[in-house]
Amino acid sequence: MSVQERHRRERRARRQTILAAAARIFARRGLEQATIGMIAREAEVAVGTIYLYFSSRDDLFLTLRAERIQHLNDRYREIQARGLAPLHELREVVAAYFEYLSESRELFLTQQSVGYAQMRKRLKRRGEIERFDTVMKLGREGFDLWAKSVSRVCETGSINDPQRCATVAAVMWAGLNGAFLLTGGDNVFREVTGLSPDHFLEQALDFHLRAAHPSAFGVAAPKPRNGAVGDSHGANGANSKGRAENNSKEKPGDLTAAMPLD
Questions:
Q1: What sign does the dihedral 83-84-86-92 (CA atoms) show?
Q2: Structure confidence by residue, pLDDT tens digits, 130-156
Q3: Distance CA 7, CA 40 (A)
Q4: Are residues 45 and 87 in the same domain?
Q5: Could you list the residue range(s) of the whole structural domain that residue 20 is in?
Q6: Rounded to two decimals, what is the model's pTM?
Q7: Dist CA 21 CA 170 (whole Å)
Q8: Residue 168 sits in a domain of what CATH number?
């Protein structure tokens, strides 16, 4: 191994050490309370060493986010390239997301308290701004990949309007994130609901899948009532009114019955 190659490896290893230390500090203290000094002590390097790799605390945080989202997006693409059946593909995509959440739980929780709009206002260096834009771009790519798998399930389950599929994807994503946040290790979920947090994420997923593709679970798809037929976007005013009245009669919490009709 050449001296140059050894130096490159040492730099990569030190960079990863700093990122790992930053992740732990952000998890313990949150972004706003974390300092470069704390991260340096955690990584057992000099403060000046960190600035050889990263321009600021925000730059460190954004780098962590970008690398982890990129890895998740790569996993999504790998799964989608296998040519799996729609439901199988979506379950694999969700499993990859659950794994990502579990591996990054504390950083994910920290992220929830980060005001990205405020962060963007305080960024001044070009590199930091580019990193911020990269995180936003990767986040959008990740959601688009997620929505692609959800849409395949929706289309086989009779929801074929792209906008509705995107809404289903967003509701499912938000719902699973919420379920993940609730089922931490503090046992509050069990105390409040009386339910076990074990496998609750999987149960939440099945709930959403039944809504997106009821026939795959032996559930009859919702039917138009009162003879309502025609354009699903409400081009016929009477049809839109009838559908709104029908939906208002569904039982509360019956997500499958409340799904938009084609």
A1: negative
A2: 999 999 999 999 999 999 999 999 888
A3: 20
A4: no
A5: 1-54
A6: 0.76
A7: 32
A8: 1.10.357
